[in-house]
Amino acid sequence: MSHAVVIGSGPAGLMAAAALAQAGHPVTICEAKPSVGRKFLMAGKSGLNLTKDEPADAFLRAYAEAQPPLRPMLDAFGPLQVMRWAEDLGEPVFAGSSARVFPKAMKASPLLRRWLAQLGASGVTINTRWRWTGWDGAALAFETPAGVQHLHADATVLALGGASWRRLGSDGEWTGLLAGRGVPLTPFAPANAAVAMAWSDHMTRHFGAALKSISLACGPYTSRGEAVISRRGLEGGGIYSVSRGLREGHPLVVDLAPDLPAAQIAQRLSRPRGKATLSNHLRKTLRLDPVKIALLQEMAHPLPDDAAALAGLVKALPLHHAGLRPLDEAISTAGGIAWAGLDEGLGIRALPGVFAAGEMLDWEAPTGGYLITACMATGLWAGRHAAAAMG
Asked: How far apart are CA 46 and CA 26, in angstroms?
């Protein structure tokens, strides 16, 4: 009977294995780390945002230029299918006020346990501490605790992740193996990344504080999400949503009072302030909290006395930064196997019988459920097409 090998045990790899097993093929998953689904479990620490319950067109727009190739995969396994999949595994889900969908357990471990139990019941074998090193002739070669091991596969699905969070298994080192075989690659770049800031001592007391009710803009990218001030810079969903703009070279600007027009802000700031400090005047007239006032002073000290000029800064404060944080710290990565190097079934054109899925592919999306959904959708797609190719 034909045997399939899946390399990588994140959501893409597990979905590919499930599709292959459902088609009746023996499947072996090989994972370099001591346990499976490490990045999946890490995502679960903040609640495990599985998907977003929104109309298909709005959901697809999150994938920017990757929409055309991803569309059939997300049509086949989109938000509705993700929710049904979790429910079928016995893990109820709910949609929050932002339409983001989470397991009611608000963590990944129960869902992962049920998923692995289902795979085990369908005969899937999992080898951990098996690091793929390429091919030895026609065989897949692995470094293992027992020495070099080889597996012969009738179909292989690569689900090795991008190039962020190395400690969880996504180190991007597979690029050298594929480039040497003529697979076209787009260089990796940080996506959903924090912004590095060289804070003055004035900001130390605010480390860990959140900037709420703000609007961020970076070129064509905007966000009404929050940002967190950390020792290393600015983090959080609001920043991640516009980080692509920084990568493209656009200036980063924050609106500290997005619900107030500039004219109204200037009018309020024009009120007599008496003996109040400028900080207290900002707090009383605009209800700016200490974190916003500190950021305003950090970026634009000394602040102007002119009400209109100060209102302009409140509405569009330029954030002077040191670029994006390093690639390995990014939530996800852009780049990977170029779409031109893949057929419509996610088969790698230069490597017959080898398919790819997940963050290995050249796409990116914001946080909010889009990342996990696309990883699962591409994994399922690659697994089904690998099964079909095996006959």
From this structure: 35
Q: What is the DSSP letter of 245?
A: H
Block means of pLDDT (10 residues each) for the chain, 391 residues, are: 92 98 97 96 90 96 94 98 98 94 95 98 98 97 98 98 92 96 97 97 97 97 94 95 95 97 97 91 95 97 95 98 95 96 98 98 95 98 98 85
Cα separation, 282 vs 289, in Å, equals: 9
Alpha carbon of residue 180 to chain centroid: 27
CB 55 within 8 A of CB 79: no
What's the pTM?
Answer: 0.93
Joined tokens for residue 254 = 């924050």
Contact indicator for 25, 175 with CB cutoff of 8 Å: no
| CATH architecture assignment, domain 4-190+332-390 | 3-Layer(bba) Sandwich (3.50)
Q: Where are the domains of the chain?
A: 4-190+332-390, 195-318
Cis bond leading into 302, ω under 30°?
yes
* Phi/psi at 128 (5° precision): -100, 160
